[in-house]
Design brief:
heterodimer; A: mainly alpha; 11 helices; B: alpha/beta; six-stranded mixed sheet; 8 helices; 11 strands; globular
């Protein structure tokens, strides 16, 4: 068990999945309740051309990802305003366009070798700079979610009456999407363009089945994400499987395990609350 | 000296930009008074409540609101799968009064506990909101409005979906809250509930009438103009009932 810990690349990979797990798990609970899973998947795919351009230019991936996610967000906003295109279709159109553009660039003669690591991640190749960025993300997410907690809770509970409580649902949405965009552009380097959505959705979906209060749910999701991340890395180390994909699979495994556990919990809660006479509606 | 009105509307027309959604609204709500808003679905009851909250654009007339309005929405609008307790939902009412970087502290939690006490739900403070009964959820939302120090409570069809005992209990609670000097406006379909209020305002895009239940509800013309004729006489009693479209009576 301890042998892998001697390897510097494994130490860095473990630190990366711990930091991304904490940020992704906590943020993921809001993704689940604001129904943003599809938005996360779309945003992560749409930054592909930015990643490829950065790889071609030989600059840090973050410098390609940030402008690409801004372009994608603006394009979705503009496309959704065209009559006859609803929001979901607008996202699909923009994402396919952006991803297609990324593939075209990736297949061009200028593209450097190893471009597939942009798609599937290179968790064992994270640099100290990547780790510092991930740590920055974890701090940003923790501080922002602490400050915004009450307001996000109100806007997600009942958008219609949130304004009468002094909360703008639109501002809550934008704040959450900015945090998610930051999370995606950082996490994509370790987990890859195709798999990054797992860390934002899987642990939170599992935690939701195991807890019915927001703060415990966020703590649990962060813990499960870290657990799955570490488990995935060990799987990858010993079984020789791809790092990012192993982490994603471990996250799915955690969710699968939460299904029977959640059912047990629900039946226990039912038997506890039924005698009080509270009507379940 | 008569008490200063909590709400005064004269010739009010308001909308969402464009043509006004409601017009000719004219009433005065004094402290301690209850006002029933009667009207068909889509007739502007909820719109009028939103106008009182200042969420609509005033087109003409005047509207003076001299107290903080706390809104009590229909409980189906909130999410029942949401991971919050009755206490969490009540505490939401304290956020509006805090600067954006502050989280509810001890003072806010105490206010929330008092409000839950006032609506008779202290024992269920820790229960998940979605697991409460319809009447209990309505009380939690009233507690949420109370912690905002609301001088006026705006209730949107609070009785819909409630069984008789829950509805009676809620009516008693509303009476108590009015007794403490609050103004209460209730959007409702229920003529019986309206009869128990101090004032009845009938609205169908424009205000049809406003006055005491005795004068307004006795006038069949008013009810016909409000509901478009969907009124039935209850045989033998001389009473009347409304058959609102797409609405189940409880």
């Amino acid at each position: 068990m301890l042998a892998p810990l001697q390897e510097p690349f494994m130490q860095r990979a473990l630190a990366e999945v711990v930091l991304l797990g904490v940020a992704g798990g906590a943020l993921g609970c809001w993704v689940v309740f604001y129904r943003l899973s599809y938005a996360v998947e779309s945003l992560s795919h749409s930054i592909f051309p930015g990643l490829v351009l950065a790889a071609i230019a030989g600059i840090p991936l973050l410098l390609g990802a940030v402008p690409a996610i801004v372009v994608a967000a603006l394009a979705i906003g503009i496309t959704a305003r065209i009559a006859g295109i609803d929001r979901e279709a607008a996202i699909a159109v923009v994402v396919t366009t952006m991803f297609g553009l990324g593939v075209l660039l990736a297949l061009s003669p200028q593209s450097p070798p190893g471009i597939e690591s942009l798609l599937f991640g290179d968790v064992f190749g994270v640099t100290d700079a990547d780790l510092a960025t991930a740590a920055g993300l974890a701090v940003l997410v923790a501080v922002s979610l602490r400050l915004l907690h009450g307001r996000l809770l109100i806007a997600g509970f009942d958008r219609g009456t949130a304004p009468s409580l002094g909360i703008s649902p639109a501002i809550a949405d934008v704040a959450l999407l900015i945090l998610l965009a930051a999370g995606i552009v950082v996490a994509v380097q370790g987990l890859g363009n195709l798999l990054v959505v797992a860390v934002f959705v899987g642990p939170a979906a599992a935690a939701r089945r195991l807890s019915d209060r927001m703060l415990p749910m966020m703590a649990l999701a962060a813990g499960l994400a870290v657990l799955a991340g570490v488990g995935g890395l060990y799987l990858s180390y010993y079984a020789g499987t791809a790092g990012g994909a192993s982490v994603a699979l471990a996250i799915v495994g955690v969710y699968a395990l939460s299904l029977p556990a959640g059912r047990l919990r629900v039946s226990r809660v039912r038997s506890r609350t039924a005698p009080t006479g509270a009507t379940v509606t | 000296m008569p008490a200063e009105p909590l709400i005064e509307a004269t010739g009010l027309a308001a909308g969402y930009g464009g043509a006004p959604a409601i017009s000719g609204v004219e009433f005065t709500l004094l402290p301690g008074q209850t006002l029933a808003l009667l009207g068909p679905n889509g007739g502007g009851k909820t719109t009028l409540l939103r106008a009182l909250l200042g969420e609509l654009r005033r087109v003409e007339g005047t509207l003076r609101v001299r107290a903080r309005c706390g809104t009590v929405p229909q409980t189906e609008r909130s999410r029942l799968d949401y991971p919050v307790s009755a206490f969490d939902v009540t505490t939401m009412g304290t956020i509006a009064g805090l600067p954006w970087w502050r989280r509810p502290g001890r003072r806010e939690r105490e206010a929330a506990a008092r409000a839950l006490d006032q609506v008779g739900l202290r024992a269920l403070a820790g229960e998940t909101f979605g697991r409460l009964s319809g009447g209990q959820r309505q009380r939690v939302l009233i507690a949420r409005a109370l912690v905002q120090d609301a001088g006026v409570l705006l209730l949107d069809e609070p009785f819909s979906g409630l069984d008789r005992p829950s509805a009676d209990g809620l009516e008693t609670l509303i009476g108590e809250l009015a007794g403490e000097g609050r103004g209460i406006a209730i959007a409702t379909h229920d003529l019986e509930q309206a009869r128990g209020c101090d004032l009845v305002l009938c609205i169908n895009k424009q205000q049809i009438a406003c006055g005491s239940p005795a004068e307004v509800l006795a006038d069949l013309g008013v009810l016909e103009a409000t509901y478009g004729g969907a009124i039935v006489e209850i045989p033998g009693t001389g009473g009347r009932a409304i058959l609102p479209p797409h609405h189940h009576h409880h």
